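Input set for joint prediction.
Command: fold jointly, output tokens.
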Amino acid sequence: MFPSVLEAYGLSEDQCSIRPFGTGLINHTWKVSYGAEAYILQRINDAVFHHPHLIAENMDALAFYLQTHHPEYLFVKPLSTKDGRNLVQTAEGYFRLVPFIADSYTFDVVAAAEQAYQAARQFGKFTRLLAGFPIGRLHLTLPDFHNLSLRYRQFETALQKGNPARIAATESLIEAMRSFRDIVHTFEDIRNHSGFRLRVTHHDTKISNVLFDGSGKGLCVIDLDTVMPGYFISDLGDMMRTYLSPVSEEEKNMDLILIRDEYFQAIVRGYLSEMKDELSSAEMEHIVYSGKFMIYMQALRFLTDHLNDDQYYGARYEGHNHVRAVNQLTLLQRLTEKEPILKRMVQESIYSF
Ligand code: GN1
Ligand code: MG
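tokens >
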């Protein structure tokens, strides 16, 4: 599948070594080494992203803006082909090639609060540097991606039209899921609230989407397919979802899921170190909510997919998405139990700036 793609970028496959790279659920990623040079090759999943050229156009627009206004920012832009295309379409799908930044590192697991701080700072910085970008020019690469109201409706549809055996066997989990429905109502209030702004938002703030240098300092954010107009709760919340617990969404032993206070503090401090002057007071009041919002949405998405026979995320074992849904619901319960303490920590962080 690679020769014609690599050829478009002037690389010959015989001289490249190609190996699978990373752990994303949606796109396919490979690392391509070519002498001393290295690249990241990605096939965009066009069952998810129906219009891959919109992603490429967003990259071009963001690169141009950052190059003009913040030329010192390391923006990892996909390379152009020999004939100037920003995407390669073959019978096997849509591909892009991105330079591999020398001496940069990524992590799959957050191993220290300092890493969480650095990552939160980088995601905050990305949004802040792009605060002047004309938001209306950013394409919606995945319309309604973080529309929690829609995700809830999709869950309800799955309850009507999904696999009847799975629905019947999941009754108590479905009830538990419904009991958090208030989180959807708050989201609806946010959408109607003038204090909430749509900003350039990454929408996938897992730790592996941050590049670090050799000393552990954050360099920039990567994996920009879902950069779209969004609310800050998406980015801040997904960091809480993926950094707070020592175990990931794949963990089957729910007793291991817990909220680490020092990581919470690190995320909030890192994010606010860049975003404190951007956020309104109404937004500041929803910092803890952001975690509830993202964790609930992911729990709903996993359970919906389980009820729909794993059509979206796939499953590596029977009941995989059910386990993931229970995992995320457990994380939501742990976060909710700690809400008063976490809110106090937010206040302290705000005062400390
Ligand atoms: C997907 O492909 P990956 O792992 O970066 C998903 C995210 C989910 C995540 C859960 C486009 O991201 O929204 O949070 O799985 N991306 C898309 O692991 O659906
Ligand atoms: Mg992603």
